Amino acid sequence: MTKVEMENVGSVRRRLAVEIPAGEVTAEIERAYDRLRRKANVRGFRQGRAPRPVLERLFGDQVRADVFGKLVHDSFYEALKEQNVEPVGQPEIITEQAELGQPLRYSATIEVRPEIVASAYEGIEVERPVRKITDADVDRFMEDRRDSLAQLRPITGRTRAVANDVATIDYEARGDGKLLGRGQNRHVSVGGDQPTDMGTHLTGAEVGRPFEFEVDYPDSHPAQDLAGRKVAFCVEVKGLAVKETPDLDDDFAKEHGDCETLEELRRRVRERLEEAAAHDADGAVRARLMEQLIANHDFEVPPAMVERRTNALAEEVLESLGSRRPPASQEAEVRRRMCEELESRARDQVKGDLILEAIASREQLSVSDDELEEQINRIADHAGNARERLRALYQDAAARLSLRARILQERALDLVLERARVRTMEQASGVAGEPGNG
Questions:
Q1: What residues make up the domain containing 388?
Q2: In a domain, 123, yes or no
Q3: Interior CA angle at 59 toward 56 and 62, to 5°?
Q4: Distance CA 331, CA 322 (A)
Q5: 3-state helix, strand and coil shares in percent for the chain, rounded to the nearest 5
Q6: pTM for this prediction
């Protein structure tokens, strides 16, 4: 009978010492050779007739490796069941004895979830920063909406670009002799004072004539393929236009705002901005509660869980880059740097999830099957054309388990919020250089 002993080697690490009796090892070896004899094609012998010594000479190393590997695999998962322990990452297995006629011994070190005593989650004091919506906020929104509805009227009286023109351009960008990007029929506003904006360099460019300039991108530039580089642009202006925007009047309100008057549209815009500010404030409260919870609970987070979350965050960033995602030859290095930067955030996220799970357990929160189905339906309803694909995804047991865990975490945070002492603080608008709440 297989013997299993477990010892703690830290708050989130366990070491399993496993010993499989020699008799079981020998029996498995015999079964392996029986299977091999029936199917092996050995020169000079009919199939199924090759002597054992010949099989051992030809295939002995492979048979032993396969048998020992199978015994370790099967016994490891049986040991986990016996010890009632669930690893959160891949085991570190060290073979200590693997010889014919002897017991097979190995150790398996695993990471497990920490044991958390949920505490200090009632009566947390937190501020709710609400951004005050002003007339300037409404004005800015209206101007942005007006600008989005602008029409481009071609300029026919001149061919040289001046400030506030909209230029239609083709371009190529090169750095260190390599093509970094190209574009066709791009609309660019001419003028400005930002050296990294293409439009800043287009003043004076002539329609139909190549125009060249260089841009020094700072190390802090968000596009990693441009950061810290000197980039040479070759631009051809194909046409110039002036942007004509509609007047902000009652006709604008009727046509673009489903309102009878401009004043009515402004009131509706203010209401929506206030709703958005309230939503942002609620999100800020929840974020600050999580910060407090993480600060109030001191425990080790399993490195395997942090690594998985870090990799997931890095992949989200890479996916968001779209066509600017680095080429395959550079992606590994970019991902490595991202993971270094994201590791701290990932650790806090994992720690926060574990705390919320502990609170949910202590408060005996639960999610019924009907509630789970309702949430799946809500998610599917917002998935558009991907509705059926998403429903199929949540037929998978692991996906449903993950969704149930997320719902429980949200309910645990809702409970913490209900019992918190929240103080609303009005903050100034961020318009016209005034500080906002972000």
A1: 281-433
A2: no
A3: 120
A4: 13
A5: 50, 20, 30
A6: 0.77
